[in-house]
Specification:
The chain has 425 residues and is an alpha/beta fold. It folds into four domains: 164 residues, Molybdenum Cofactor Biosythetic Enzyme, Chain A (3-Layer(aba) Sandwich); 60 residues, Molybdopterin biosynthesis moea protein, domain 2 (Alpha-Beta Complex), CATH 3.90.105.10; 99 residues, Molybdopterin biosynthesis moea protein, domain 3 (Molybdopterin biosynthesis moeA protein, domain 3, Beta Complex), CATH 2.170.190; 72 residues, MoeA, C-terminal, domain IV (Beta-clip, Beta Barrel). It has a six-stranded mixed sheet with strand order 15-12-16-20-19-17, sandwiched between helices. α1 crosses α7 and α4 runs parallel beside α7. The longest helix has 19 residues. The two termini are 40 Å apart.
């Protein structure tokens, strides 16, 4: 039996980022950039007005004040998307809207509210622009002007390889005229539940049977992490059926296998046996609770020399979920090109005492924010088959190996399952 850290290190040792693919930028949301983005333009591409007002020469209005306004002749009006072909000469101004290119000769913009135009009704301003304007406040060179290249300069490295693309990065790509971008491919993850006791979700319950919830839980976890689930259904407790399902997953291009069940010590726990015959077993059993019966191995891929990792999750639904978060999630993230693989953690005050077996424990808790910081309390019954305990939880309190009791009021590390939404007093 190995530690959680040793198990994760061994799994990640056999995982590499997947090759890039060229996708439309909206499909790249949440994915990892596989190229450097260097700008071939300035953004903005021209000096433009940062305010609705009047483009002027700052020297013309240097002494302007409400008590001593400066009168300028209005020679043109320019809106965003238009270009004025008039030049601002001494004693003149051009009416300008936010975003419009700064006319030649102008070097500052006076906002409407600092002119007498602001006193006029808005509909009058639009239908009958003034021929003369009174400026009531001085501006300095460059005031209310957004210079060309203020945001991005030509030749600048804008987004580095390895950047996770959020909505703001998608907007930057659009502003650069990029319709498509290279990102790491999403892994195809084969999901297989094992066990003669399992029924499909639509089937009526019969004595000794349970519905196959693990397939749906694991598929949802894969999707939330960024992978593409390949649902292979149920493999019965025979090596022949399990081998057939594994081969079907390989034919569908699986980059990773996730099985649930079949990795314990029972007579019908066949996953580790099949791993030993079809591929290569790397380890079995981890010092953690829940989730001790976890297997990891490598299956031969379709190409010569290629191998496909297989993570054999426990069959109990809570054990499978906790094991996914500790091992499968980091593996999928690494395939996606991520470098930060850990779940976010916080320090919380434990509101009740906990006992532990001495293995590293992951206790389902509800985290709330209170005046003195975060607090954590258990979701109740912690049995590995109580899936509703995960539905109630927003975190996993991590109790280190060798610790058998944690007193109420102690500080504990909590892995956040849902962060930061939903954390309230």
């Amino acid at each position: 039996m190995i530690s959680v850290d040793e198990a994760l290190t061994e799994i990640l040792r056999h995982i590499e980022p997947l090759e890039p693919e060229y996708v439309p930028i909206l499909e790249a949301l949440g994915r990892v950039l596989a190229e450097e983005i260097v700008s071939d333009i300035d953004i903005p591409p021209f000096d433009n007005s940062g305010m609705d007002g009047y483009a002027v020469r700052a020297s013309d209005v240097a002494g302007a004040a409400r008590e001593a306004p400066v009168r300028l002749k209005v020679i043109d009006s320019v809106a965003a998307g238009q270009v004025s072909h008039r030049r601002v000469e001494p004693g003149t101004a051009i009416r300008i809207m936010t975003g419009a290119p700064l006319p030649e000769g102008a070097d500052a913009v006076v906002p409407f509210e600092d002119t007498n135009d602001y006193d006029r009704p808005k509909d009058t301003r639009l239908s009958a622009p003034a021929d003369w304007i009174e400026v009531r406040k001085a501006v300095r060179l460059g005031d209310n002007v957004r210079p060309a290249g203020e945001d991005i300069r030509h030749g600048e490295l804008v987004l580095a390889r390895g950047r996770v693309l959020r909505p703001q990065e998608i907007g930057v790509l659009a502003s650069l005229g990029r319709e498509r971008v290279w990102v790491h491919r999403r892994p195809r993850v084969a999901i297989l539940a094992t066990g003669d006791e399992l029924l499909e979700v639509h089937e009526p319950l019969t004595p000794g049977k349970i519905r196959n919830s693990n397939e749906y839980t694991n598929a949802a976890l894969v999707m939330r992490t960024g992978g593409i689930p390949i649902r292979l259904g149920i493999a019965r407790d025979t090596q022949a059926d399990l081998k057939a399902k594994i081969r079907a997953g390989l034919e569908q291009g699986a980059d990773l296998f996730l099985t649930s069940g079949g990795v314990s010590v029972g007579d019908y726990d066949v996953v580790k046996d099949v791993l030993g015959t079809e591929g290569r077993m790397q380890f079995w059993q981890v010092r953690m609770k829940p989730g001790k019966p976890l297997a990891f191995g490598l299956l031969p891929g379709r190409a010569p020399g290629q191998s496909v990792p297989l993570i054999g999750l426990p069959g109990n639904p809570v054990s499978a979920m906790v094991s996914f978060e500790q091992f499968a999630r980091p593996a999928i993230l690494k395939m996606l090109g991520h470098t930060v693989l850990d779940k976010p953690t916080i320090q919380a005050i434990l509101d009740e005492p906990l006992t532990n077996s001495g293995r590293r424990a992951f206790v389902r808790v509800i985290v709330t924010r209170q005046d003195d910081g975060y607090h954590a309390r258990t979701t109740g019954e912690q049995g590995s088959g109580v899936l509703t305990s995960m539905a109630k939880a927003n975190g996993l309190a991590v109790i280190p190996e060798g610790i058998e009791r944690v007193a109420a009021g102690s500080w504990v590390t909590v892995q956040m399952l849902d962060w930061p939404e939903g954390i309230r007093v």
